[in-house]
Batch of 2 targets.
Target 1
Amino acid sequence: MHISPWPSGVALALLLTACDAKNPNGMPNEVTAQGPAKVVTASPAKPDSAAIRTENPVMPADTSVAGAWRLVEGALRSHDAEVLNQLMDPEFGLWILEQPGALPLVTRVADVETFRRAYQGLPLFSLDSQLMACAELLVLKQLPEADCARQTKQNAGFARQGCFTGPATAFRALDFWASATVKGGTASQGKAAQGRTVHTVLQTRTGFRFHFAKSAGAGGRWRLIFIDLRTPCSA
């Protein structure tokens, strides 16, 4: 029996059709890669060393002061010491200003869980029952001062009531160190922290003020650096 060395016309047509097959993108079929493609940049960006040392992913780099306050408020309400510790300034720490008597008391806090307020020895998380429930912060060019004639149980003496944020200019200018008792740090350290404050969050029901600064390094986050728990008109 004679076998032809050439394929039949039908077989040849099928072979040519297979060789000319294209993928859905209109390109000739190629061998499928065995793994995902890797993208290599010619000169990858170098991270800022200061930011690496001081930043924590609990707060995104683009977080606003209002966003930082929401994190602080949430940590206080949920008694989350781990998150609140991460929101403190990693270089200058967290300082708390109180006035249990005639003289101010300033404490540098290393761990919010172990801190006790001068008022009845309460933990810092006792603030959760005193925080105002504000839907948002109202931004002001200048924060209001208390007027003792306006003081009530629901208002520490402010003409406008609510949760406000504005420049920390007035707090940076305060000089209470000469008569203050300082715990957990030195007055010079506290003054350095005070000088870094940029924005303040004020709650008018208590008059409590929460001061924020930006931590060091490119893309530094807003950090809680000072809490002023003095009640206006109570001294």
Target 2
Amino acid sequence: MDQSVLKVRELTYKLRKLNRSLRSVYLWLLWLYSTILGRTPIMLILFLVAFVWIFSNIYARIEHLNFFNAIYWIIITITTVGYGDIVPHTMIGKLIAMVVAITGFSTLTVALSLAAHNVVSKAILEREGGGKVRGTNILLVGTSPACVDIAERLRKLTGKSSRIVWVTSPETPDKYVLNARSLGVMIIKGDLTHLDTYYRADILTCNKIIICGSSDKENVASALVVKSVEGKRIYPPTIISLSYTSQGEKILSELVNVDVVVPSKLIGGLFMESFSDPVAAMFLSALSEGHPNLLEIKLMEGPLGLVFMRVGNKVVPLGRKDNITAERVSKLASKIRGTKVYVVARVKSVMDIEPLKPFDYLDPNDILVAVEFKSEIT
């Protein structure tokens, strides 16, 4: 076979191999930008700082420059100013210049674009209550005023680390919307039975969805729309819904297959424990079946080793912290409420909820679950 043909084939093979290698590098960079760097401009800026630091060291050694002049040259190159007072003289230096110019400029451009997009999107959402939100962590759905209370507790629990979006109806009173906005909650108004409303809230990126409508009918309708998106996600979000009646709870849990159903009477401190721990929510949900009401009782440690108990709006002393049992709390709560109250469980943390027996000792700062029967004590 002719020698020239062999050389052409060898060159073709090398080009194909190089093409596969470049494609692999391209896909890796694309994954890096889309999964890690492309999420926030801060990550891109950190990447850019590391990039400048590494290539400044390399360029300084190759071109025999001091470190300051190398950083100066890279920054001037990335920003496309190009004064021309420092130029590469070696072949490797010129290759580094090409890599720095392409990679650095593209990274800086993307970072500035993301920063501008975040500022403009937030301004539009604050002004119009519309648009599309990027990176939703928690999605509140419904028209109930309880959404504001839940948003406030979520904000206290997570701080500013999570993005909370409230999808509600245009008929929701402005005072609730303003209260939610003051907590840093994004507002999306629209028809709760249309999927487009949820896409505007970027439902495909949220981790948890809390449905808190003003009725079981609204909760079921919203849950059906939300559940229709599950098949489009690799990792579906946890869906939590409030319920107002035992029938609504049964429909949401058995027919709609909502992950966690929480009775509306648990909107309060216990609801946050339920939200953080689905097992706790299921336990409390089962506990409420067949009982007229659930009551939240908080123990608070005071001075001189005394413990106080808060039931509703009343705070009363219990005694010393080493002598408090569930039965004692039940009797005192029954006396305060004028009803029959039985302490049945305590929630000490998001992963620690347990049933209580009458003679179990309690600790200060416990959150207790009690069953209250409305029949008056005779």
